Amino acid sequence: MDVFLHNQAEKFLNTLDRKIQPSIKEHLKTLSKEPYSKLLDIKKLKGMGRKPDIFRLRVGEYRIIYFIQGNEILVTDIIRREAGYNL
After folding, report:
1. What is the pTM (predicted TM-score) of this model?
2. Which residue among 30, 43, 44, 54 is buried most deeply as judged by most CB within 10 Å?
3. Which long-range contacts (CB under 8 A, 24 or more apart) does 5-12 make?
4. SS3 assignment, position 23
5. Burial class (CB in 10 A: 0-12, 13-18, 19+), 1
């Protein structure tokens, strides 16, 4: 599957510390190969109404918010853990 990052997610990724960026990119590569991998800390988000199934992938203190559409993984946001409580 191909992984696409929303502009906002890509900008946030580029502002992160150079130590965490490779880890997030590696997790995205793994996600593209195995979108439902048991090796990754993935959870389906609840309470999103009729929107498509939205998932979060945990990478340390960061959360990657995404959904799957056909053969594409669309990353809508990358956030710090504490910011996730304000969604």
Report:
1. 0.85
2. 54
3. 5/75, 5/78, 6/74, 6/75, 6/76, 6/77, 8/76, 8/77, 9/64, 9/75, 9/76, 9/77, 9/78, 12/77, 12/78, 12/79
4. helix
5. middle
pLDDT in tens, 24-43: 999 999 999 998 888 899 99
Could you tell me if residue 3 is inside a domain? yes
Question: Residue 13 corresponds to which tokens in the numbers above?
Answer: 């990724």
**Angle made by CA atoms 5, 41, 56, in degrees to the nearest 5:** 40
Q: Tell me the residue range of the domain where 6 lies.
A: 1-43
